[in-house]
Amino acid sequence: GAGVSQSPRYKVTKRGQDVALRCDPISGHVSLYWYRQALGQGPEFLTYFNYEAQQDKSGLPNDRFSAERPEGSISTLTIQRTEQRDSAMYRCASSLAGGLAGGWTYEQYFGPGTRLTVT
Amino acid sequence: TQLLEQSPQFLSIQEGENLTVYCNSSSVFSSLQWYRQEPGEGPVLLVTVVTGGEVKKLKRLTFQFGDARKDSSLHITAAQPGDTGLYLCAGLSSARQLTFGSGTQLTVLP
Question: Which residues of A touch B38 (CB under 8 A)?
Fold first, then answer.
């Protein structure tokens, strides 16, 4: 079946512009996660959703970053007034469900990412 | 903030050699996962360890979770060029958040 897809794969924008990054999770996956990843480093958590509800946004760097998942499927990460320091690979992941209960573990499936470059 | 430190950061070895990658934290995790990431792709889950002291084997890869659930190791036997990639450990906290380690870039030379 189809995996997690993200669009666009590459985005070049000028400083000060707003950008919207899209994530289409695996069908039926309850949880959706956004990460930012620097080259050669592990992903850094930004935020995650269960269904349409944003459960944790503690990783969002500042109030220029926001995310939504209005119908519990596709999600959009929006960065307003972009700055050069926002340049990074933004990855989305989905899982059947989030959390650990009674020894059950979950697997996150990652998308190919959107490479954002702010000039 | 829970931090996971991986060592070494870079490792270049010859085909057929053995290697061990370490993942250490001062925090306790509910479970710990190991991922492998190839260039241009997202991380792919290799294994999840849940119980302190647990050892899991996946062909030539052996994963161990520390007794105190603060550290883990990945041992690869007879490495092959196809093992080349970025290896990431990730700890799942009680807050249901995955914290990734800093990564180990492995290169296996033919």
Answer: none
